[in-house]
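We modelled the chain as a single entity of 210 amino acids. Its sequence is:
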Amino acid sequence: MLEKLPEVIGHALQGVRAGLDHIVFNTLGMRQGMASIALTSVAFADHAPMRSRHTADGEGLSPPLQWAGLPAGTVSLLLIVEDADSPTPNPLVHAIVVGLIAKSDSLAEAAIPSQDNEGIGLHVGRNSALQASWLPPDPPPGHGMHRYAFQLFALDSAPEFSETPGRDEIFDALREHAIASGLLIGTCERADGSIKTQDGVTAPGPLVAG
């Protein structure tokens, strides 16, 4: 993680981004003909700003998610959230959740544990801060808009994962068992030390990248 990144460095690194082509959804090399999952949120539209309550300048809660269109043969679901615009070689991981039951069609707000929030007991993997929790969006000042990729996958089995699986572990499982996928993009931007959000809140926040 990049912490306390000065705004001048954020401006200098505006062209340095992991890129959407490096998120799991686009690097998995999934076979053609894979089904598509309709992934949405009542908290933000696709490619639109997220609410402050779901970022580091608000309560830092994970946003609500809903989905439809799971194909026959779905046994379990897996969610990974990545920052496609982090100034790092690979996208920063903000959340991993494995073992979601196939009959589910949503995650409530704050379902994933975060600071001062216990969540609902999901099997949560490691984010890029090496914590089994939701890492709230906190883009570096002056770096421009960041796109947070919420990626949901349907699996044809329920693989056994370690206690806190990381990106590499879930990537291997997806390569073998994914049969459908869905993608939702939420955005967040920090300008002049404040986060620009959907609800117009521009509260000063800590200078942390991600």
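As a brief sanity check on the tokenised model: Residues 167-177 form the longest helix (11 residues). The domain at 7-195 is CATH 3.90.280.10 (Phosphatidylethanolamine-binding Protein).
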